[in-house]
Amino acid sequence: MLVKPKKNLGQNFLHDENIINKIINSSKISSDDQVLEIGPGTGNLTKFIITQKPKKIYVVEKDKDLAGELERQYYNKIIVIKKDILKIPNEFYSGKKFLILGNLPYNISTKILSNWCLNNKLNVSKMILMFQKEVAERILADVNSKEYSRITILSKWKFNINKITDVKPNSFFPKPKINSTVLEFIPKTKIHEIKDPKNLEIVTKVFFSQRRKMINKPINILFKKLQFNYKKFNLHPSDRPQNVDIDNYLRIVNEYESLGS
């Protein structure tokens, strides 16, 4: 498929079959799977997905030229969704269980992942996704590290995450200026219950918008004049957002839902 990459869409097409095989082997696609591929581009991964003979293959491609080419090449084997992934309504995911694969557009990769983590209608068996290496490091980060961030908390709330492989720029055309990393997301069998996932988004945004400040400031914003019991969470007002572990963030959300919101 000869399509010129579009700079304004940040297109870098994965062509390295060694990396593609690692993604396919890690995904363990079965005949019962409904595969959702994000950013298929020129179909280099898509054609390998087809060989695994899953039940259904959906591909989401915003670029109309690429979407048209994919339809022509694989017209009876895939369902092409010609939309921006961020504009697909939550209802699309309802009633389906997906295995999601994708080389996510780097400029919106954290937004895509955040949306999925906060979407209660999304049901997945597994996700295998490629990110800019620095973003992958933030997703995998441990508490008390400088990489620890909102996306760490949102991701690890619902998923166990493993690194599959790093990817060099020469695995793409055109070559990006950065390294990439493929991650595997496996849903947790039990997650910490919160009433509304949007409250996790609110709490983490307030904390990490001022990540260098002491946590007494975001606590005061969230709980206003209500008395927050730091000892209950084994926290101190002078702690920083990166010092608060994921379990505590989820417990703070519970507190926010019962007292502050």
Describe this structure in words.
The model has no long low-confidence stretch (mean pLDDT 92). Helix 4 crosses helix 6, helix 6 crosses helix 9 and helix 7 crosses helix 9. Helices cover 34% and strands 19% of the residues. With 261 residues, it is α/β, with parallel strands linked by helices. The N and C termini lie far apart (52 Å). The chain is elongated, with a radius of gyration of 20 Å. The strands form two sheets. A seven-stranded mixed beta sheet has the order 4-3-2-5-6-9-7. A two-stranded antiparallel ribbon has the order 1-8. It has two domains: 181 residues, Rossmann fold (3-Layer(aba) Sandwich), CATH 3.40.50; 64 residues, rRNA adenine dimethylase, C-terminal domain (Helicase, Ruva Protein, domain 3). Helix 3 links the parallel strand 3 and strand 4. The chain contains nine helices and nine strands.
Extract low-pLDDT stretches: none
- In round numbers, the mean pLDDT is 92
**Named CATH topology of the largest domain:** Rossmann fold
Q: How do the SSEs run, as a string of H and E?
A: EHEHEHEEHEHHEEEHHH
Strand content: 15-25%
CATH superfamily of the largest domain: Vaccinia Virus protein VP39
Apparent shape: elongated
Rg, alpha carbons: 20 Å
CA distance, first residue to last residue: 52 Å
Number of helices: 9
- CATH architecture annotation of the largest domain: 3-Layer(aba) Sandwich
